[in-house]
Amino acid sequence: MIRPVYDWMMRLAGHRHALWWLAAISFMESSFFPIPPDIMLIPMILARPSRAFLIATVCTVSSVIGGFLGYAIGFWLLEGLGKPVLEFYGQTKNLEAFQQMFQEYGWWIIVIKGATPIPYKLITIASGAAHFPLWAFAIASVISRGMRFFLVAALLWKFGSPIRDFVEKRLTLVTTVFVVLLVGGFVAVKFLV
Fold first, then answer.
1. How many CB atoms lie within 10 A of CB 191?
2. What is the chain's mean pLDDT, rounded?
3. Phi-psi sector, 173: left (phi>0), alpha (psi -120 to 50), beta
4. How far is residue 79's CA from residue 74's CA, in Å, rounded to a whole number?
């Protein structure tokens, strides 16, 4: 099931309306679609490196807007729509623990997990289910999604095609190192200033 969708997205990356398709995929991935927008983002940036940051911006904005739909699903439609999506990813049993973690670490959960290849829809739906403050969800989403997509864009813009295989194979490692450095920076500023 996933392979045909992946192949379809790769074809869309070369379409003349690819930027619009990327926006739609980024929006849907934040609430229910199974494949991350990176599948389109990477070839689009490699094809037009001069537009790398425009492409990352479109991907970020669309992902955050789609995150509001995921949040709404968790907030108002958890039983009817949210749980089936979480069930698809085998995460239904973790929902309660995730909601409890939001009480103490909500903002950080969104920032850190939203920047990793963990399906963002899990974060958005759980945020709504936990009734996490919408303004904090919005800010954390902009930061986390921006970090993720702009990091990929910057690496591809700077290093081009040779970095593609590295990013695709080690996206988790790349984003984890970036998040650790970012969080370490915040901690250092908090305790040293």
1. 7
2. 85
3. alpha
4. 8
Backbone angles phi, psi at 21, to 5 degrees: -65, -40
Return the structure tokens found at 19. 């930027």
- The tokens for 76 are 């108002």
Distance from C-alpha of 84 to C-alpha of 79, rounded to nearest angstrom: 8
| pLDDT mean over 82-101 | 85
pLDDT digits (tens, 9 = 90+) for 65-87: 999 999 999 999 999 999 999 88
Residue of 162, 147, 54, 141 lying closest to 41 (CA atoms): 54
Please report, to the nearest 10 degrees, the dihedral formed by the alpha carbons of residues 86, 87, 92, 94 taken in order. Answer: -70
Exposure of 118 in the CB half-sphere (CA atoms within 13 A): 17
From the list 130, 45, 125, the residue with the least C-alpha distance to 96 is: 130
Q: Supply the pTM of this predicted model.
A: 0.83
pLDDT at 175: 63
Distance of CA 68 to the CA centre of its chain: 13
pLDDT in tens, 24-42: 999 999 999 988 898 899 8
Contact 39, 10 (CB under 8 A): yes
Find the length of the chain: 193
Q: Which helix (H) or strand (E) holds 17?
A: none
Residue 175 token pair = 């984003």
Q: Is 119 helix (H, G, I), strand (E, B) or coil?
A: coil
